[in-house]
Amino acid sequence: MQIGIDRIHFATASQAFDLKDLAEARSVDPDKYTIGIGQDKMSMAGEDEDIVTLGANAALPIVEGHEGSIDALLFATESSVDQSKSAGVHVHELLGLNSRCRVVELKHACYSGTAALQMAVGMVARNPKQSVLVIASDIARYELESPGESTQGCGAVAMLVKANPSILAIEPDSGLHTQDVMDFWRPNYSDTAMVDGKYSAKVYLDSLKHAWLHFQEVSGMVISDIQHFCYHLPFTKMAEKAHARLLKVNKTDHPKIESLKATLQYNRIVGNSYTASLYIGFCSLLDNAKEDLANQRVGFFSYGSGCVAEFFSGLIQPGYKERLLTESHQNALSARRTIDYPEYLALYKTQHHSDGQDFESRPMTQGQFRFSGIKDHKRLYERNESSEG
Ligand code: CAA
After folding, report:
1. Range list for CATH 3.40.47.10 in the chain
2. Which one of 113, 336, 337, 379 is CB 3.0 to 4.6 Å from 275, fit for a cystine?
């Protein structure tokens, strides 16, 4: 029996900030961001957008009409809004899912989306009648004027995991690498990530090598068995570095780095979305590949700082194209409102609520759900009446 991704859809914020404007504000050559880092824009969450609304917006088109048949919701994030309650329970309510549903939040940096996906596959293997909704949702935030600032962004991806999937059958072998390192982390008292940037890129690349070698050992596959590669994308240049390292480890120059192009298109204009970024890269491949991907194998490299890494593979299913939500992705990306530097600063400052005060958000989102504010320490969510959908 095959198990994997039956539907996939992503959502991002309704605002976008151009990295050329950030370069001007920071007196940096814009080529550093657009060429050196490989990013053109970052999505910027509005006052009424957070990981819950992004996650619910990502999931809505794939659960609409099937609300009663979701058996579990696994919510992966590293920008959690509560230390106790799962963000997934807010999403469960917004989507109107059946109360006979298992909901939990998972964490390990950018890796937990993959942990959730593999756990969902395990749950369906035990009971093939089950449908498991995986949501990975994050807002990537670094200190203003720090090197990480240009690699911010946000987004959420939702994946429905089922037996006999329509889009991707996930294969059973994984290569793993776990090591206790401090390359990137966020202590409870900080609302921005702490990062040793150059070291984090080195650990990412070393982890890729170890996870790949393990994957090869357990699967018996060689690099030429895989037609497409999707890498975790903190910024798109990282995928090029990763692919160059993989080719070097395998002493080959195929598939060429240019073959990654379709996987990078969306992330170039969304920015980092931590747990979601690998899978937004996969959506980018599905939506933007020129050729028919049916029956082709995709290799996925998931990396979570700290660190846990996994290399796994999947086979694209015949007929996958009819199940894609390409138009929804492209419309949402092009409908984003471009913000200027003062608005970027203002939104950055209102993103995090750490003072315990009541808060009422101004309407900004174009999505179907909004974070309306905080009252008596409780986060409040609602349908967005002004949305066109
Ligand atoms: N034109 C073209 N290229 C230019 C340029 C110009 N004018 N100026 C600089 N560059 C190039 C540099 O040569 C460099 O290229 P290489 O990496 O190929 O050498 C690139 O632009 C970046 O320049 P710097 O190395 O000087 O950049 P920096 O030190 O200011 O910041 C960064 C880069 C370390 C990635 C920083 O953005 C950062 O800390 N980001 C957050 C951490 C991160 O994303 N780490 C990735 C691995 S960890 C992970 O993947 C988990 C996660 O999601 C966070």
Report:
1. 3-168+324-387, 176-317
2. 113
Distance from Cα 206 to the centre of ligand 1, integer Å: 17
Mutate to test the pocket of ligand 1, among 42, 183, 198, 200 (most ligand atoms within 8 A of CB): 200
Only one residue has tokens 């329509």, namely 166
User: Known catalytic residue: 110?
Assistant: yes
Active site residue 329: no
Helix (H) or strand (E) holding 247: helix 236-249
Per-residue pLDDT of the chain (389 residues; tens, 9 = 90+): 999 999 999 999 999 999 999 999 999 999 999 999 999 999 999 999 999 999 999 999 999 999 999 999 999 999 999 999 999 999 999 999 999 999 999 999 999 999 999 999 999 999 999 999 999 999 999 999 999 999 999 999 999 999 999 999 999 999 999 999 999 999 999 999 999 999 999 999 999 999 999 999 999 999 999 999 999 999 999 999 999 999 999 999 999 999 999 999 999 999 999 999 999 999 999 999 999 999 999 999 999 999 999 999 999 999 999 999 999 999 999 999 999 999 999 999 988 888 889 999 999 999 999 999 999 999 999 999 887 55
CATH 3.40.47.10 fits 3-168+324-387, yes or no: yes
Atom 50 (ligand 1): residue with closest C-alpha? 234
Please, are residues 325 and 297 in contact by the beta-carbon 8 Å criterion?
no
Dihedral in degrees, nearest 10, Cα atoms 277, 278, 284, 290: 160
Asked whether the whole model's pTM tops 0.85, one would answer: yes
Ligand 1 centroid to residue 337 C-alpha, Å: 26
**Quick one: fold of 176-317?**
Peroxisomal Thiolase; Chain A, domain 1 (3.40.47)
CA 308 to chain centre: 16
3-state secondary structure of 344: helix
Q: Active site includes 78?
A: yes
